[in-house]
Amino acid sequence: MRIYVILNFQCGGKYVSLVVFFAIWNFFMPFLVFLYVPETKGVPIEEMELVWKRHWFWKRFMPVDNYIDNPPEKP
User: Fold this and answer.
1) I need a surface site. Which of 43, 58, 64, 74 has the fewest CB within 10 A?
2) CA–CA distance from 39 to each of 6, 32, 49, 75 (Å)?
3) 74: part of which helix (H) or strand (E)?
């Protein structure tokens, strides 16, 4: 399907419409990344599940696990 769309852009608009399409896509992409990709700098791999569970969008897709959400206290 994508191939047909790209071919229509190339043949119909003499490459101008394809360039405009990718320019618009590249304009909006940083905003989407900012919204949907959580910050993980300095987060150890063991805590990555907590990062995804606390994110406003991705927490809907993470399974509920009481041990991860409420870890037992260390003695």
Assistant:
1) 74
2) 33, 13, 13, 31
3) none
If asked whether residues 31 and 42 sit together in one domain, one would say no
Total structural domains within the chain: 2
- Are residues 11 and 21 both part of a single domain? yes
In single-letter form, the type of residue at position 20 comes to: V
Residue 56 corresponds to which amino acid? W
User: What domain range includes position 2?
Assistant: 1-37
What is residue 14's three-state secondary structure?
coil
pLDDT in tens, 33-48: 999 999 888 989 888 8
For the entire predicted model, the pTM comes to 0.57
